[in-house]
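BACKBONE GEOMETRY TOKENS
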Amino acid sequence: MSEVKKDILSRIGLLYTGMMIFSVIILGRILYLQLVEGSYWKSKAFQVSQKNIIIPPMRGDILSSDGRILATSIPFYEIRIDFRAEGLKKDTFYKHVDSLSIYLSRLFADKTPLDYKKELTKAYKKGNRYYLLKRKVDYPQYKQLRAMPLFRLGPNKGGFMAIQVYYRAKLYGQLAARTLGYTSSDRVVVGIEGAMDSYLRGKEGLQLMQRLSGNVWMPINNGNTKEPEDGADVVTTIDVNLQDVAHHSLMTHLQEHGAKYGCAIVMETNTGYIKAIANLQYDTTSKSYVEKFNYAIGESVEPGSTFKLVTMLTALEEGCIKLTDTINTGNGEVTYYGVKMKDSHEGGLGKISVADVFAYSSNVGTSKIATACFSKDPKVFIQRIYNLHLNEKLGLDIKGEGTPVIKDPSDSSWSGLTLPWMSIGYEVKVTPMQILTLYNAVANNGKMVKPLLIKELRRKGSVVKEFDPEVINPAICSEQTLKDLKVMLERVVEKGTAKNLNHSPYKIAGKTGTAQIARGKHGYKDENAQKTYRASFVGYFPADNPKYSIIVVVNSPSNSVYYGNLVAGPIFKEIADKIYATHVDIQKDYAELDSSKNKLPVIKKGYAKDIMLLSKYFKLNTNKTASNWVTSSPSKNKIELKPFSYNKSMMPNVVGMGLRDAMHILGNLGVEIRVIGRGKVVKQSLPTGAAIEKGIVVYLELS
């Protein structure tokens, strides 16, 4: 018995000893966790129950030069469903899924109720915790969703999750869309959005959050909250009105000529501010012209005849020609090393002055000037081009600028053909923006300024940074050369290749360009052995006091008309006309009319009330008349208004009227009208007094 008792006691002793050892181990572990690993486990607990969340800043707006919003961030909602929410029971889901599917189908109209039910049921069975229902949901839609079956039960019982996100919106649609650009999650940066991203995006904030029951997070105000810093607003140089004019003028004419793509740029002469920049190409999917690529700055191409200004500038600066010198262009053909160069003028121009070589865009004359001046030392010609910085990128505010190509005599690709062909704009590549910058320098009295798209940065309405005009070259040439260049550019419009543009109250100076498009292995022909062309016009206005310079480039017009004066020139003219009409500061002051010479403005005949209203606005003296239609003529110091009457069975004299008034009168007479040109009526096909017959067609020529 004593042996049994001793055995029991020993076993109990062992048990207690073991328990004591185990207790010591546990105590030691507790002490170890508290003293050694305490900070680690505390941080783990904090991570589970508390966390810092990023507070995204509001991205800055992109504004026009007058403060109108071009691009902004608009709040939307991303709708998701937590199908494993604690309170979302099976019977609850199946009770509401049918009605929910019907409501969703009605709201979004993208799927049938059955399709929605299948998708929701499938996601529920998988236990999807972050099921994406819809992106880019606006606030009215969000309010409707919250009231729908299942969702109105809240996040715990209904699994409804709404995450506010911001999307960039261009408020003027396609206007300057490519120039405004975008940024993407994979850091693709385009246009102003990309270039100014560091300013626009702002700085993130931090907010400490505490986890509550039901997976609900509540902010903790511990004084350490870091508020986000909203992005700065970027003020561009773009004028919305001019952008609209350039965009729609370009689109209209691209459609008219069936062109593949084109671009138009409007630059403010003194500052280099880009007031409008349009890039349109035909999209085969949408069957319309859209902004997909910034051709104005991104495409480096052979410019053709617009480059002849460089040739003339270099030759004049070297003193090897004068405007009055004569060049024999012969029959319009010349051969260099077995390769023939032709003029567009059939039969040639014979002996003409240097000024007319440029005005009539003679390839033969221009190349003869270049070879006579620089064939012995072509490096002189190339160095002049380098001095104009045409071999360098402009360093614009936005990325994607095309790389210029200016050959050097030391290059392996240089040949005897290079100099004559470079002189007329081939074997050289520059961007439309580079060409415009050069012509703008001529308009700006020789000062070449860098094109600017960004004017300033603002925070809460206050300017924090300004981007001042930057001078690339203070003087591209001598004063005499500059004077000669201006004469030649004006001559192009007055009597040369762009004389079709010479009908404005202001003077235009510029140059046409019609370049064949290189097709790689096909040479200058496409895969169908057909030549394709790039039409351009670049210049400035008013020529006697330049305010704006413009370049227009149209690629591959397909309707058999491809010359620069006929394709690109009218776009230039249309943009310039609308700028001139809406900018009083560049118009001649009516108050400065010389009354001593009795110079009164010419007023169209037409509707009396309109004429009298205009006369009152410009403070012109007129007599009163009871007639609805009047003619006008200057008489001493006033405009004499006389009644204009006509027989409704005979053709009236509408010469001198504006198109609207002429169409009103002739339309009431049942005449079918055909219009040629723009402006006021200068000619009518049916003479005054001729009998008007039913269905008769009358052509009105405008100027």
Residues 589-598 have pLDDT under 50 and may be disordered. The first strand starts at residue 50 and ends at 55. The radius of gyration is 38 Å. The first helix runs from residue 2 to 35.
